[in-house]
Amino acid sequence: MSFGKKCFNLLCLGGLAYIGYKGYYYVTGIINISRELPVYLNNVIGEKPSMDINVVFNKMMINLSFSAETINEHPDIADTTMEYITRYYPIFRPKKISIEIEQKVEEAPVEVEEIEEEETEE
Q1: Which of 31, 46, 57, 122 gives 20 to 30 Å between its CA and that of 110?
Q2: Where are the beta strands (DSSP E) in the chain?
Q3: Which CATH number do you get for residue 51?
Q4: 3-class SS at 104?
């Protein structure tokens, strides 16, 4: 092979390695956020939220569900969450993150009727 082809191959391998490196840190960042953010918000706000993270290419959408009392007491939950992510996970750009705060839906207990089984002799 000529010198040019060797340099080109080396450049391509270096580019693929860099893309793999960035992808690895992006995916591990998402996994760490999904584990550590609810614990952080529980320590700061006092309630552990229900959390849903959706990632589409380079955009991340985070849905946090809190009780109505917590939302009324702490109107700056989205700002606190954004500060946490930008401080500890700089790989995510603040312009590419959207945070939505929702109220938890109170589920009414469902009553289940018991069905009596008839005994049959066979």
Answers
A1: 46
A2: 50-56, 59-66, 97-103
A3: 3.30.300.30
A4: coil
Residue 50 lies in a domain: yes
The span from the first CA to the last CA of the chain, in angstroms, equals: 84
Q: Is residue 94 included in any domain, yes or no?
A: yes
- Indicate the pLDDT class of residue 122, thresholds 50, 70 and 90: low
d(CA 88, CA 102): 24
Query: Is residue 15 in a domain?
Result: yes
Residue 41, class by beta-carbon neighbours within 10 Å (0-12 exposed, 13-18 middle, 19+ buried)? Answer: buried
Pairing of strands 50-56, 59-66: antiparallel
Question: Can you give the pLDDT at residue 41?
Answer: 94
Residue 21 lies in a domain: yes
pLDDT at residue 38, rounded to an integer: 95
* pLDDT greater than 60 at residue 43: yes
